[in-house]
Amino acid sequence: MANYRRGRINDAVKEELAIALGGVREPKVVDNFVSITRAEVAPDLKGATVYFSCMGDEREALIGLKKCAGILRHHLASTLNLRVTPELHFVFDQSMLHGARIAKLLDEISRKDEENKGGDDDGE
Questions:
Q1: Quick one: DSSP state of residue 87?
Q2: pTM for this structure?
C-alpha cells in the first residue's frame, strides 16, 4: 500500500475516532477529557495504534478506552470503507508532556538570561 494512502487512512481513523469519542458515555473516558492525537494503521489494516492524551489520570483513561474499544471499532466499520476494520490498541501520547517540559526549560533559560543581563547593567 502506498504511503500516501496509509497517511489518508491514518487521518481518517483519527478523525472518526475523535467523532465517536464524543458519543462515548464511559465515565473513565469522559471524566479524564480524553482526546485522540494520532492513529497509525498497520500496512495490512489488521491493527491500529491509537495515541491519546488526557487531562486526568492516564491509566484510568486507558482502562476506559479499552472498555469502549468495541464501540469505537464498530463506528469505524460503519463509517470507513476499509477491507478490514483494524483492532484498536491505545497508547498514551507523551508528546504533550514532552513539549510542556521543553517550554518550561526554555522559559527558565530566558529568565536566567534576563537576570544576567540585568546584573550587568547595574554594574556599569
A1: E
A2: 0.78
